[in-house]
């Protein structure tokens, strides 16, 4: 299967309006896959405890941070998410010279979740991910299917002050710090000669393989990419279109700007077809540590016909039941070997309601347009409400413990009205 998925964006001052960092990502996955949005509070663990990731078990840490994640419902890891320290991470599939057909190990999506659970800054997330990559490796099917769809990963990671681009090839990697402006990634290597951190053997490995002569300036993308770029042509087009859309609003990038980019179908960023946008995320992170970050998630396919709903980290935030898929525990076909012999129903409550509404939108033009207008009005009202917290802070956090869930109830009410 050829690369055809995912775009991640970050904009930092002076590209944004106000002293804010705007993070955005579309998760483009198989069209029949359900993406859930889940919240896990911070937790303490015993010294010998383990954590069971999608395919392998690894050592747990003493403390994990609270996280909100948008994730394919069948696996442990996440496509994208944020933590209580306002670290945001999204990952992309990348293919290069190194084979991705290794044994089951950590998925890139596992590494997203582990990075969020264990790091309170973007740079620390780079360190967490690369340390785990070196210890356990990356590998295993990235689809709930026997076809064995595998890839390496790149990550865009941000916090309140900067962003990092991390690109991997097997256990080797390079990372670049982004301190201002904007950056977007698609399914291709993008780190060139500016490398701020790297695997200690990354250059020597490339030289030993004959990919680099050891004398010319080292360019990570050139050295580790395919000799022909035909396989990543689609992602290259989306990358260029995404960059143009960011440039168009440079200096004035807001959450609305990012949502518009994620909804853009002409560019291919809002993907349709066998692979489609199954979930979207936009985060607004003030550089002022006294102000909260606001994290918007759709939890439904196609952002054009979805509502971005806000989540804010507060002490007693509640579970997100309406967007949590059914759990099958040890009986889940993913856990049984051979894996993926069947697919259980993973649709969560919001997904079921949205699926009906999406069919109406597709079938009845005028009625569909009215539904989308109502959804946009709700979204705009929520963003106006969130602006108060982004500018002034939170005086009564207990009122926000059900923010995401109450927004879902309002979304479902617009379905009923329509």
TrEMBL record:
GO molecular function, one term: dipeptidase activity
Disordered: annotated segments: 324-344
UniProt cross-references to InterPro entries, sorted A to Z: Peptidase_C69
Record GO biological process: proteolysis
Pfam family, one: Peptidase_C69
Stated family: Belongs to the peptidase C69 family. Secernin subfamily.
UniProt protein name: Secernin 3
């Amino acid at each position: 299967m050829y690369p055809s998925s995912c775009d991640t964006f970050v904009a930092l001052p002076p590209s944004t309006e106000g002293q804010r960092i705007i993070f955005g990502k579309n998760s483009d996955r198989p069209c029949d896959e359900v993406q859930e949005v889940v919240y896990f509070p911070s937790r303490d663990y015993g010294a010998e405890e383990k954590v069971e990731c999608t395919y392998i078990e690894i050592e747990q840490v003493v403390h994990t941070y609270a996280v909100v994640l948008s994730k394919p419902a069948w696996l442990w890891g996440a496509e994208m998410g944020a933590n209580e320290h306002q670290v945001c991470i999204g990952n992309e599939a990348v293919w290069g010279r190194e084979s991705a057909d290794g044994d089951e190990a950590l998925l890139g999506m596992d590494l997203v979740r582990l990075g969020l659970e264990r790091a309170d800054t973007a740079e620390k997330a780079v360190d967490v991910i690369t340390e785990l990559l070196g210890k356990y490796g990356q590998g295993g099917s990235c689809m709930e299917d026997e076809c064995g769809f595998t890839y390496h990963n790149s990550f865009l990671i941000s916090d309140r002050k900067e962003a990092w681009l991390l690109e991997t090839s097997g256990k080797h990697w390079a990372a670049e710090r982004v301190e201002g402006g904007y950056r977007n990634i698609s399914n291709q290597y993008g780190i060139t000669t500016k490398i701020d951190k790297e695997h200690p053997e990354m250059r020597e490995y490339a030289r030993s393989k004959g990919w680099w002569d050891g004398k010319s300036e080292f360019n990570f993308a050139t050295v580790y990419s395919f000799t022909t770029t035909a396989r990543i042509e689609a992602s290259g087009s989306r990358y260029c279109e995404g960059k143009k859309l960011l440039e168009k609003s440079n200096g004035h990038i807001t959450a609305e700007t990012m949502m518009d980019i994620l909804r853009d179908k002409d560019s291919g960023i809002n993907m349709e077809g066998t692979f489609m946008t199954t979930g979207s995320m936009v985060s607004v992170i003030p550089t002022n540590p006294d102000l909260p970050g606001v994290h918007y998630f759709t939890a439904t396919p196609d952002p054009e016909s979805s509502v971005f709903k806000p989540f804010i980290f507060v002490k007693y935030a509640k579970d997100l039941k309406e967007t949590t898929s059914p759990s099958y525990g040890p009986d889940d076909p993913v856990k049984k070997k051979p894996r993926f012999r069947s697919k259980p129903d993973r649709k969560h409550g919001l997904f079921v309601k949205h699926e009906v509404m999406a069919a109406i939108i597709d079938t009845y033009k005028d009625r569909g347009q009215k539904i989308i207008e109502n959804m946009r009005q709700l979204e705009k009202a929520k963003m106006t409400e969130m602006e108060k917290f982004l500018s002034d802070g939170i005086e009564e956090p207990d009122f926000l413990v059900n923010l995401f869930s109450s927004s879902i109830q309002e979304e479902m009410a617009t379905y009923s009205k329509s």
